[in-house]
Specification:
The chain is of the alpha+beta class. It is built from seven helices and 14 strands. Helix 1 packs parallel to helix 7. The structure holds adenosine-5'-diphosphate and uridine-5'-diphosphate.
């Protein structure tokens, strides 16, 4: 499909174009980035993988009654979405302690949390996405108390849907990041749900105490291009239920 000439926004993982009818086209890039973009590489067809997985998972949560920005996947790599006013707060939900949580708190990597934990981060590359709390969200004027309550509620609902779905695919959903936007008086789930934005462990290995993951952590940890490709292949197989055709 021919893309509009004018780019509305280019981020680390996607290029956004505005259509004449006001909807957006999201072109998923093949770039892999970590450490605030300091670490950079490419994975052939990554944009296709991630767009197909995002559309699949957004449909799943939409079917469960959670409003999302998805209009349709136009072709692998290109998704049409409704334009929303993004709230610059990343909502991270954790079911398992890992990543920055175990660097900050006295918790063992890979331990299941007694109940989900939600954390907020300010979307600000220059400040390295600092950890913020409800009061920070309020004094910075990022969202109202009602909106934050709704973000918590929707994030927990997404977790309910995804946790069960991933479990049925032999995966433990350890954590994930969501973004929400304002649209017509309500909040909708926006952006992506991909191995770039979540940690997923093999359930059988997890029960044996081994953390085998199929997500971007492999790249963050310096894995080879083959290891990264193998992880995204397996994530795609489990999530979409098909052999990746790209
Ligand atoms: P980043 O560099 O922040 O990772 P991306 O490359 O993922 O950004 O680009 C996506 C950008 O588009 C992000 O800033 C995200 O907040 C924004 N976005 C996602 N969904 C929508 C939407 N439906 N409407 C408007 N902006 C969106
Ligand atoms: N995450 C994300 N974007 C970010 C930061 C984190 O998608 O800018 C995701 C990350 O992939 C993981 C979860 O949020 O699934 C929790 O990340 P954590 O805070 O542990 O950060 P990290 O270990 O990446 O520093």
């Amino acid at each position: 499909m021919k893309l509009p000439d004018k780019v509305m926004k280019e981020g680390k993982a996607k290029v956004i174009y505005e259509k004449e009818d006001g909807n957006l086209l999201m072109k998923f890039k093949d770039d892999l980035t970590a450490l605030d973009g300091l670490k950079h590489d490419q994975m052939p067809s990554k944009g296709k993988y991630n767009s197909v997985m995002t559309a699949h998972l957004l449909k799943l949560v939409a079917d469960a009654g959670i409003p999302t920005h998805l209009v349709s996947l136009l072709e692998p790599g290109l998704m049409e979405v409704k334009k929303v006013e993004i709230i610059p707060v990343e909502a991270v939900l954790r079911n398992v302690a890992t990543g920055s949580m175990v660097r900050r708190l006295p918790l063992e990597a890979g331990s299941r949390l007694p109940s989900p934990v939600i954390e907020f981060y300010l979307k600000d590359d220059a400040l390295h996405d600092p950890w913020i709390n409800d009061d920070h969200v309020r004094i910075l004027g990022l969202a109202t108390a009602e909106e934050l309550k709704r973000i918590r509620e929707l994030t927990l609902k997404v977790n309910d849907v995804l946790l069960d779905y991933f479990a049925s695919k032999g995966l433990v959903l350890a954590d994930f990041k969501l973004e929400f936007g304002r649209l017509g008086g309500d909040l909708v789930l926006a952006d992506e749900i991909t191995p770039d934005t979540m940690r997923i462990f093999d359930a059988k290995e997890f029960e044996k105490g081994r953390l085998v993951e199929y997500d971007k952590q492999i790249f963050r940890d310096g894995g080879s291009p083959e290891d990264i490709k193998a992880a995204y292949d397996e994530a795609f197989r489990r999530i979409v239920g098909e052999e990746p055709p790209f």
